[in-house]
Design the sequence.
């Protein structure tokens, strides 16, 4: 793909700026980046990216089955993208398909072990399955990677509290206001 490198005073062709040979280019979208005195213009829109956008739109519309389908299509075209697996995990969780969500999070982590969102989403699915000890571990890993994330902090506290309640049913029973009134 020949790119045009334009300066304020001249234009020359450059062929090594972008290598889309591994992308499925299906549409044209003008994107301009300004870097110093140069303007780089190129046209790239990939099928997996379009599926990602469509999946995200379905998530906003709460059409989770369609979102899973879009993310699945993106994964089929680009199976090495952790974001696609993680987004599908979010949709799977919304459908209460927690085992599938956990599998997708595990795949995302296998691709990118520093992807905090995958650990956070796995923690949500594990919590929903009452696997609080594993959820705590997932949230702790998410916080190790993204220590300022308030959602991970809050979800970790919830999972830790639920773990304590499970470990000590009598103690959690005593926390019940109705039992305290007896």
Sequence:
């Amino acid at each position: 793909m020949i790119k045009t490198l334009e300066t304020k005073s001249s234009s020359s062709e450059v062929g090594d700026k972008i290598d889309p040979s591994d992308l499925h280019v299906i549409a044209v979208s003008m994107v301009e980046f300004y870097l110093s005195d140069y303007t780089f213009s190129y046209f790239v829109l990939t099928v997996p990216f379009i599926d990602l956008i469509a999946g995200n739109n379905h998530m906003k519309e709460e059409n989770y089955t369609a979102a899973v389908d879009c993310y699945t299509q993106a994964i089929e075209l680009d199976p090495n993208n952790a974001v696609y697996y993680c987004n599908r995990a979010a949709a799977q969780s919304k459908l209460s398909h927690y085992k599938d969500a956990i599998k997708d999070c595990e795949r995302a982590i296998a691709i990118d072990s520093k992807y905090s969102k995958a650990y956070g989403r796995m923690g949500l699915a594990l919590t929903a399955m009452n696997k609080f000890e594993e959820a705590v571990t997932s949230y702790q890993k998410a916080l190790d990677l993204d220590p300022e994330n308030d959602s991970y902090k809050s979800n970790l506290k919830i999972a830790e509290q639920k773990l304590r309640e499970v470990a000590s049913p009598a103690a959690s029973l005593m926390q019940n206001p109705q039992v305290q009134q007896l």
Remarks:
- Residues 150-167 form the longest helix (18 residues).
